[in-house]
Amino acid sequence: MEIHKKQLSKGLLIVSNIIFIVLATTSLLYCDKEKPSLDVPFEGTHPDVVKSMLELADTNSNDVLYDLGSGDGRIVIMAAQQYNIKRGVGFEIDPQRIEEANFRREQLNLMETVFFYQKDIFQVNFENASILTLYLLDRINLKLRPKILMDTKPGTRIVSHAFHMSDWEPDDITHHKKARKNKILKWIVPASAGGIWRCQYIIDRQIEYRNNIEIVQTFQTIKGSIIDSDSNNSIEIYDTGLNGKTIHFFADLLYNNQKVNVHYKGEIENNIINGVQIWHINNQEKKYQWYAKRDEIDVSGIWSINFDSEKHQLDGFLTLNSNDSPIPKAYYDFNINKSRATLEHVYVWGSSIYLRLPVGKPNDYFVLTGSLNKMKGSGFVELPKYFFTWSAIRTD
Predict the structure, then answer these.
(1) What is the 3-state secondary structure (H, E, C) of the chain?
(2) Which of 25, 224, 254, 333 is most buried, by CB atoms within 10 Å?
């Protein structure tokens, strides 16, 4: 019996030594690789949270999903296994995580639909993705925001575990007890809707009715007014919505000296809107085809910006170097001290503009929203306790 105990003890020691050697060798293999500097430490998302993220994204078999900072690949793999996505791609800078993800990919026989690349997410083009999934940090999301809005197509769904996009408010939020901060957030990339739209439609198959709709956009939020072609009155639109390419709003029009509640629905494709109007008149509902074309405006150039605030001396010159994308290269030259700031967050939707103007300390800024139309522009800065307006004149 004693001999058997000694043999067993010796056998266990040999097995333990083998395990130690394997683990040590594996560690050395990873240590030999150059470890990148990570902006976000790896923390795996709980499988239940992964599932909720994919549900919130309305994931389906037509989707191409990019996971930014994909870690061990769990989000992409679940999307392929349970939602049969067309293609899933994970981008990760840590080679150890890439090896783990690729090992799982091979074991599960997902070689034709799932791919992992060791790549900086800021060097990736998101154009082909219909879903982006993120588990990063607030500051990384904000840094990534211009690229998301520049690369992706309208309607692309962005789903983030826990972390937000600053003042780009989410379209939807799911609360999950196993999620960090108990939150999963979703955004839908909006189409460009800002500008002046010249509308026409036929009423009762005989009367051609025309008007202009002026829309000011900030991300997926729109507001504006209709200029009635008969009375030239400005009519405010309300209950507005912009979901990817789909736009809708209400207006109370005056037709034949009668107030008519009209619901506008349409799809935006570049500078065209095609849709339907639903007229509520005399307790009846009538539908008419609706067509609108937007005036093309190139807002690139040099604009003299003036503020009505005495407290904040922000007057200066805004330079927009390109109108080829939603995010032009931009600079601001302050009159007060002749300094120049490079603007990282400038977004243009048609003639609508959003920009963050740095003031004071490095992380302090004011948000300007409004519109630029041909030679003039205007808008406002809204602060917690008050707001002030700005105006612009093209100088180039």
Answers:
(1) CHHHHHHHHHHHHHHHHHHHHHHHHHHHHHHHCCCCCCCCCCCCCCHHHHHHHHHHCCCCCCCEEEEECCCCCHHHHHHHHHHCCCEEEEEECCHHHHHHHHHHHHHCCCCCCEEEEECCHHHCCCCCCCEEEECCCHHHHHHHHHHHHHHCCCCCEEEEECCCCCCCCCCEEEECCCCHHHEEEEEECCCCCCEEEEEEEEECCCEEEEEEEEEEEECCEEEEEEEECCCCCEEECEEEEEECCEEEEEEEEEECCEEEEEEEEEEEECCEEEEEEEEEECCEEEEEEEEEEECCCCCCEEEEEEECCCCCCCCEEEEECCCCCCCCCEEEEECCCCCEEEECCEEEECCEEEEEEECCCCCCEEEEEEEEECCEEEEEEECCCCEEEEEEEECC
(2) 224
Q: What percent of the chain has pLDDT over 70?
A: 87
Residues 311 and 182 in one domain: no
Contacts 24+ apart (CB under 8 A), 170-177: 171/220, 171/243, 172/56, 174/52, 174/55, 174/56, 176/48, 176/49, 176/52
- pLDDT digit string, tens, across residues 286-306: 999 999 999 888 899 999 999
Q: Are residues 184 and 208 in the same domain?
A: no
- Please check whether residue 41 lies inside any domain of the structure: no
Per the domain annotation, does 35 fall within a domain?
A: no
Read off the amino acid at residue 133: T
Give per-residue pLDDT as tens, 349-382: 999 999 999 987 878 999 999 999 989 999 999 9
